[in-house]
Write a structure and sequence with these properties.
Elements (H helix, E strand, L loop, with lengths): L5 E7 L3 H10 L6 E5 L6 H5 L8 E2 L13 E2 L2 E2 L10 H8 L2 H11 L3 E4 L2 E4 L4 H15 L2 E4 L6 E3 L5 E3 L3 E8 L14 H8 L4 E7 L3 E3 L4 H4 L3 E13 L12 E13 L2 E3 L1 H15 L2 E8 L6 H17 L24 H14 L8 H10 L1 E3 L1 E4 L7 E6 L17 E3 L13 H18 L1
Parallel strand pairs: 1-2, 1-11, 2-8, 11-21
Antiparallel strand pairs: 3-7, 4-5, 5-15, 6-7, 9-10, 10-11, 12-20, 13-16, 13-19, 14-15, 14-17, 15-16, 17-18
Helix pairs in contact: 1-5, 1-12, 3-12, 9-11, 10-11
The structure holds flavin-adenine dinucleotide.
The site of flavin-adenine dinucleotide (FAD) has 40 residues, from helix 1, strand 2, helix 2, helix 6 and helix 12.
Length: 445
């Protein structure tokens, strides 16, 4: 029997993909209810893009594992986590960045294009949320906040019952992942999906900082510098935590503004690396990040510059010890080249690694250290500090044309709850819009 609160479509989760699905699926004839457990919808949208909402990226395309090394504007990296055999690619090819921009223009937004990164011209994430909310209101989409569904049952003969309060013909779970749970996405959506028979790929924090085991981070805290980062997979560790010594494999290269803090590395390039590093660490792999701290100079150029400086230093009295012998050049050699804190660490680490090198050879020692500064990530920061979730509802069990479950007729998934994660730069919201579009196509069809 249908409850008195019966809808054609119920969407669990009033975030980016839930609101978008409602707008795209609403017709004059159907009834749609969004159920949101927070006291208001779209809290996470408000924190996106540092409050400005980077809502898509003109570079959006998908790279599968075999293509990880294809160049992109960020360096060399995948755009979406690649656990999915082109699943994300298929969904986004039907609703790409241009279509997302047109959708928002239709809601009344003027886009701001910053090198392919798209924001609203207002540069206010709140305005993106309001445009979505107001369109829902105009279309007659009902929104219920402060309700947490506990039990969802598939009704024999079609449809779903939510606790004893609601029923619907079609159900969309758009409850987000597990990152930044203060905004509402606390992982409870996975329990609902699991109860309906779906497999959940282990959720892990991603687009986040990496904690490292090296001793010098307290000294480096606060340093920011443009750098090129190479992520290496050193293979699985054995039971006592030692590397099994498999071959080193380069898995990702990114450029960007690197930040050091007192426990490890952060900043956009590290967020991008975390998309692969998080899974490797969770699978007990040892990883290494080699950082080129002066990527704009070749080894020869840098060694040449140091050689000149060291020559002057040695000619000058400061370069001699009390016995008139040449001294190892101090960190003053880095003045005007490297941040002072970084210079001190490079000097110390170089001397540790090459205690018996002749002073003249330090042009090469320092160059080597600067071009291949090694750090060893051991874990990611928590979900709370992560921008997205790796893992989620397995894409093997979802039809990419419609986002409908292959296991339960009438059940759909959109957004971050699905095992698709993009790099930083508008790629995750693009996934939210594109998966909403596919679901709406399925719901209308
Ligand atoms: C700080 C930060 C900055 C970011 N910046 C960007 C950016 O600039 N560009 C970009 O592309 N991406 C960005 N992201 C990622 C992006 O915000 C998410 O990928 C996107 O919001 C996911 O949309 P969604 O609809 O799947 O989930 P969400 O937006 O998280 O929405 C899920 C909704 O479901 C509700 N919910 C959860 N469980 C239940 C339940 N059991 N019952 C009822 N309701 C429930 C939640 O309260 C929430 O409102 C950022 C993320 C963070 C944390």
């Amino acid at each position: 029997m249908k409850s008195k609160n019966h809808y054609d479509i119920i969407i669990i989760g009033g975030g980016a993909s839930g609101l978008c699905t409602a707008i795209m699926a609403k017709t004059a004839k159907n009834s749609i209810l969004i159920i949101e457990h927070n006291d208001r919808v779209g809290k996470k949208i408000l924190s996106t893009g540092n409050g400005k909402c980077n809502l898509t990226n003109l570079g959006c395309k998908v790279i599968t594992p075999e293509l990880v090394f294809v160049e992109n504007p960020e360096g060399i990296a995948p755009y979406y986590s690649a656990n999915d055999n082109g699943f994300a690619e298929q969904v986004i090819s039907e609703f790409d960045a241009e279509k997302a921009i047109a959708f928002f223009e239709n809601l009344g937004m003027i886009p701001l294009n910053k090198n392919g990164y798209i924001y609203p011209r207002s540069e206010q994430a709140a305005s993106v949320l309001d445009l979505l909310r107001f369109r829902c209101e105009e279309l007659g989409v009902e929104i219920l906040c402060g309700y947490q569904p506990v039990k969802i049952q598939k009704i024999h003969g079609g449809g779903f019952r939510i606790d004893d309060d609601f029923s619907c013909e079609k159900l969309i779970i758009a409850a987000g992942g597990q990152s930044a749970s203060k905004t509402g996405s606390d992982g409870s959506g996975y329990e609902l999906a699991k109860a309906l028979g779906h497999k959940i790929i282990k959720p892990l924090p991603a687009l986040c900082a990496l904690k490292c085991s090296d001793p010098f981070f307290k000294e480096l805290a606060g340093v920011r510098t443009d750098a090129k980062l190479h992520l290496f997979d050193l293979g699985e560790k054995d039971k006592v935590g030692n590397s099994k010594g498999q071959a080193k494999e380069l898995v990702m290269i990114v450029y960007g503004n690197l930040q050091f803090n007192n426990y490890g590395i952060s900043g956009i390039p590290v967020f991008q690396l975390s998309l692969i590093a998080s899974r490797l660490l969770a699978e007990s792999h040892e990883i290494l990040v080699k950082i080129d701290l002066l990527p704009e100079l070749s080894e020869d150029e840098l060694a040449g510059a140091f050689a000149k400086k060291i020559q002057k230093y040695l000619e000058h009295g400061n370069g001699k010890d009390n016995f008139g012998k040449n001294k190892v050049p101090s960190s003053d050699i880095f003045l005007g080249i490297l941040n002072k804190k970084l210079a001190n660490v490079i000097e110390k680490e170089s001397k540790k690694a090459h205690p018996n090198e002749k002073p003249e050879e330090y042009a090469f020692v320092y160059t080597h250290m600067i071009k291949r500064f090694k750090v060893h990530p051991t874990e990611t920061v928590s979900f709370e500090e992560a921008q997205t979730t790796l893992g989620g509802v397995s894409t093997e069990e979802i039809d990419p044309k419609t986002m409908e479950s292959k296991l339960v007729e009438g059940l759909y998934f959109t957004g971050e709850i699905v095992d698709v994660s993009g790099i930083c730069g508008g790629y995750n919201l693009q996934w939210a819009w594109a998966s909403a579009h596919a679901a709406a196509t399925g719901l209308k069809g």
